[in-house]
C-alpha cells in the first residue's frame, strides 16, 4: 500500500485525534456550463463551507482550486479539482502530496460528491466502499490504491433522473443518467439541494471535532 493509501486509511478512526491538516475535496467539473448541474454537488458543498468560513477557494495547487481555513482549531484545506470528474484521482493524489508535512505525513482526507442512487435531499457518510458507478470516486480509489477513504455522498436522484435512466437498456439508459447529471438543475431541485449543502458543511465540522463515527451516527440516521 502506498503512503497516500496508508494516510487515507488512518483518517477514518473512531474519534478524531488528528492534529495535522484535513483535506476536504469536492468533486465536479470546471466551467460555467456545469455550475448548477447535479454532478457539481461536491463543488457546491466546498463553496458552501468556504462561504461559511469566510474564505475563498481560488489558489491553484495540486491540479485544483484551493483555500485554507481552520475548523475547531485544525487546519482544513478546501479543494475543487480542475481535472474534470473522471480524472479526479490525479488531483487528489497531487493534493495529498502537496500538503504533506516535511516529515512526510499525509493530510487526512474527506471527499464530497454527488450520488445518483441517493434521493435528492439525502446524504450518506461512508468510511470505505466501492465507487458504485461514480467515475470520480473510481478515479480516486485508483490513484490512492485503496477504497478506504472517507466520503460524504450527496443525493441528487430525482424523478427526472429515474426517468432518464429508465429510458431504455444498455447505452441509452446510461446516457440518460449522464445527461441528467450534466444538465442544470431546476430551481425547485436546487432549493432542496441547498439544504443538503448546509448539512454537508455541518457534517464536515463534526468530522473535524468529533470524528467520522460520530458524524455517521448523527447524519446517516437522518437520511
TrEMBL record:
CDD domains: PTH (cd00462)
Pfam families (UniProt xref): Pept_tRNA_hydro (PF01195)
EC number: 3.1.1.29
Gene3D superfamilies membership: Peptidyl-tRNA hydrolase (3.40.50.1470)
InterPro entries documented for this protein: Pept_tRNA_hydro, Pept_tRNA_hydro_sf
SUPFAM superfamilies referenced in this protein's UniProt entry, alphabetically: Peptidyl-tRNA hydrolase-like
Gene Ontology molecular function: peptidyl-tRNA hydrolase activity; tRNA binding
Enzyme class, broadest EC rank: hydrolase
Keyword terms: Hydrolase, RNA-binding, tRNA-binding
HAMAP family assigned to the protein according to its UniProt record, in alphabetical order: Pept_tRNA_hydro_bact
Family annotation (PANTHER family): PEPTIDYL-TRNA HYDROLASE
Name of the protein described by the UniProt record: Peptidyl-tRNA hydrolase
Organism of origin: mine drainage metagenome
Gene transcribed to yield this protein: pth
Amino acid at each position: 500500500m502506498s503512503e497516500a493509501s496508508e494516510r487515507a486509511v488512518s483518517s477514518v478512526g473512531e474519534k478524531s485525534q488528528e492534529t495535522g491538516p484535513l483535506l476536504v475535496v469536492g468533486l465536479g467539473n470546471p466551467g460555467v456550463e456545469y455550475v448548477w448541474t447535479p454532478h457539481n454537488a461536491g463543488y457546491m458543498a466546498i463553496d458552501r463551507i468556504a462561504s461559511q468560513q469566510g474564505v475563498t477557494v481560488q489558489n491553484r495547487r495540486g491540479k485544483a482550486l484551493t483555500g485554507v481555513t481552520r475548523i475547531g482549531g485544525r487546519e482544513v484545506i478546501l479543494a475543487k479539482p480542475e481535472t474534470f470528474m473522471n480524472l479526479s484521482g490525479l488531483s487528489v493524489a497531487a493534493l495529498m502530496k502537496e500538503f504533506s508535512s516535511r516529515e512526510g505525513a499525509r493530510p487526512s482526507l474527506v471527499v464530497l460528491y454527488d450520488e445518483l442512487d441517493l434521493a435528492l435531499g439525502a446524504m450518506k457518510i461512508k468510511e470505505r466502499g466501492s465507487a458504485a458507478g461514480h467515475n470520480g470516486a473510481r478515479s480516486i480509489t485508483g490513484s490512492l490504491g485503496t477504497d478506504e477513504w472517507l466520503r460524504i455522498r450527496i443525493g441528487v436522484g430525482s424523478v427526472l433522473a429515474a426517468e432518464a435512466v429508465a429510458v431504455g437498456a444498455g447505452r441509452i439508459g446510461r446516457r440518460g443518467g449522464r445527461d441528467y447529471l450534466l444538465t442544470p438543475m431546476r430551481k425547485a431541485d436546487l432549493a432542496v439541494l441547498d439544504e443538503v449543502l448546509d448539512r454537508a458543511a455541518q457534517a464536515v465540522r463534526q468530522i473535524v471535532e468529533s470524528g467520522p463515527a460520530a458524524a455517521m451516527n448523527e447524519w446517516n440516521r437522518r437520511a
